[in-house]
Amino acid sequence: MQVRINRLTLDVTDKGQGPALLLLHGYPLDHRMWEAQIEFFRHTHRVIAPDLRGMGQSEGCSTNINIDQYADDIIALLDELGINRVTVAGFSMGGYVLFALLRKAPSRISAIVLVNTRADSDTLEGQRNRLEASQHLLEHGASSARQAMLSKLLSDTTVHDQPQLVDQVGSWMQEQTPIGLVHAQLAMAFRPDSTSMLASIKVPTIVIGGEHDKIIPPALIKQLASSIPNAKYRLIAETAHLTPVEKPDAFNNLLSDFLGKAHI
Ligand code: MLT
After folding, report:
1. Peptide bond into 218 cis (omega under 30)
2. Nearest ligand 1 atom, CA 185
3. All domains of the chain in start order, with CATH
4. What are 210-262's pLDDT values in tens digits?
């Protein structure tokens, strides 16, 4: 469905009934990366999966934005949908937005699920790479994101065993609007460091990573989990970066167990 907030239209999936579970996608993707989670958790939860502004079917904007803008959109969306408190799962870039949400509206968040994400900001080299990627996007369109990212998102096992999934993820990327991806790259390049807030997180937390993730390797995921009081740490075997898509059953079981134990 389409929801009008902050002078633009977001495309939002809103399915099921029960405690609210918000799924924030990564780059260069949209809510479709959560298809298996939406289908699984809609039987027990109200699952909200928006496309962030400028990505998927959501309207973009003409001016530059930062990570906080995505979080402001989410807060406005929760207001519009009448949701007071929510469990938030943030995958990679979605995790950066989750940290911004924690800064801006901590009282709205009942538990957090950090998926293949990190709390630190970019190095100078990382920022340089993003500026270069932005230039490629402007010159060659979304196919440059597909070319740069597809092989990093999926493990060798997935590439070998699930060629249809590889094609599907590739077309999700290919269908993105280049300028929306440029805005996302720039927002990520200049996102604030969130490491100083980790020790003060009080809500139930699980941190999930992929055994072979080269974008955010297991060592970083483990360090993130150990910086958050009482956070659970789990790695999913035979996955790279895109764990919820590569091993949906393993992912859903972990998340379901976590939500059950947190009585959510
Ligand atoms: C993502 O999966 O959202 C991106 O790889 C995150 C990033 O580029 O830092």
Report:
1. no
2. 8
3. 2-261 (3.40.50.1820)
4. 999 999 999 999 999 999 999 999 999 999 999 999 999 999 999 999 999 99
